[in-house]
Amino acid sequence: MLRAFLHPLSVTALSALFIALLMAVYPVETLQSSLRGLSIWWEVLFPALFPFFVISELLLGFGIVHFFGKLLDPLMRPLFRLPGIGGFVVTMGYISGYPVGARLTAQLWAQRLITRAEGERLVAFTTTSDPIFLIGAVSVGFFQNAAVAPILAAAHYGGGFLIGLLMRFHDARKEPPIDRTETSTSDTATTSGHVRRRISRSRLGLALKAMHEARLLDGRGMGRLVQDSIQSALKLMIVVGGLVVFFSVVMEMLTHAGFVEALAEALRLLFSLIGLPTPLADAAIFGLFEVTLGSRAAGTTGTGLMHQVAIAAWVLSWGGLSVHAQIASLLSRTDLRYRPFMIARMLHGLLAVALVYALWGWLGL
Q1: Tell me, what's the pLDDT at 201?
Q2: pLDDT, tens digit, for every residue of 118-139?
Q3: pLDDT digits (tens, 9 = 90+) for 346-355
Q4: Rg of the chain's alpha carbons, rounded to an integer?
């Protein structure tokens, strides 16, 4: 009986019932939090993410992703145990922020361009904040100090790079052996400058050929491709918006129920034991659920700039449960597992905090 009660589905059902009861008790707060989440989605997330979703669909249809895949394969294989096509996901993920990396990874998996292990490695370290949010919103807006942007970026993106290196060992024994004939040929030919130039031209030619073949295989005309890209992006944006509104309401209800305050009190005790300012516990709790709220709280706490930046780096690297829900929604359409992603987010947060403290004096802040 107890085992059935503690089953994950039972716990989820009871949690949903608890939230529904709180919504009935606090109808005004429920409406206000829903409107807040809707405002964040419409004013911030939709204009920031929708163009990237459309462009990523177009680039896949045009074969640009396949072009970069062939071109970057010699770099991605030794560093991250990923095919070169993952280099495009890394670039787009870091430029456009979460959840674009997961979206592209799911698309590559659907086209059978990556294995499950490769997809889990890829989504683990391409889920990052975009530079515009990190610099403009967090550093300049919340901290009102552009000088913290370099160290925040170094900690956040540097931690992501380290996660990529660590994830190369993920499920390594379960992978089929990789054909390294082409790489070996390139290695043996490096003794001659003429041969190096020939291989470079050959690599470019293979990349162009892969792009052309992918475009022919897709077969859609320009009008159809644009239409499909917009429809697919809109469907994903609706899911993202729904999750943002949902977590806005959940956090508001948990706050009224006293759960957030109890969690914050426990975290304050932990922070006092390890020597961190206890007011930062509130920022960490907000960041546990939502990136924007956590980053804003970290920037306005006023407990010492170094500690505030460290908590902000953790918030950006963890991503918040709202982002986690978006990633889980994308992964649910594939066979990629959520657990490796969650573990990677935890490690990324810890690495980002450690990098802030390690680099603080070195960068002269």
Answers
A1: 59
A2: 999 999 999 999 888 898 888 8
A3: 999 999 999 9
A4: 22
Q: Using alpha carbons only, give the angle 102, 87, 60 rounded to the nearest 5 degrees.
A: 65
Cα 38 from chain centroid (whole Å)? 21
Q: Where does residue 112 rank: exposed (0-12), middle (13-18), buried (19+ CB within 10 A)? A: exposed
pTM (2 d.p.): 0.78
Q: How far apart are the C-alpha atoms of 286 and 264, rounded to whole Å? A: 9
First to last CA, the chain: 57
What are 358's two structure tokens?
């390690």
Q: What per-residue confidence (pLDDT) applies to 180?
A: 38
Rounded-to-integer distance, Cα 283 and Cα 293, Å: 8
Distance of CA 77 to the CA centre of its chain: 21
Cα–Cα dist 74/95, whole Å: 22
pLDDT in tens, 227-266: 998 998 898 889 888 888 888 898 889 888 888 889 889 9
The count of other CB atoms within 10 Å of the CB of residue 217 is 10
253/241 Cα distance (integer angstroms) = 19
Tokens representing 321 are 């449960």
3-class SS letters over the chain: CHHHHCCHHHHHHHHHHHHHHHHHHCHHHHHHHHHHHHHHHHHHHHHHHHHHHHHHHHHHHHCHHHHHHHHHHHHHHHHHCCCCCHHHHHHHHHHHCCCHHHHHHHHHHHCCCCCHHHHHHHHHHCCCCCHHHHHHHHHHHHCCCHHHHHHHHHHHHHHHHHHHHHHCCCCHHHCCCCCCHHHHHHHHCCCCHHHHHHHHHHHHHHHHHHHHHHHHHHCCCHHHHHHHHHHHHHHHHHHHHHHHHHHHHHHHHHHHCCHHHHHHHHHHHHHHHHCCCCCHHHHHHHHHHCHHHHHHHHHHCCCCHHHHHHHHHHHHHHCHHHHHHHHHHHHCCCCCCHHHHHHHHHHHHHHHHHHHHHHCCCCCC
Query: 29: left (phi > 0), else alpha (psi -120 to 50), else beta?
Result: alpha
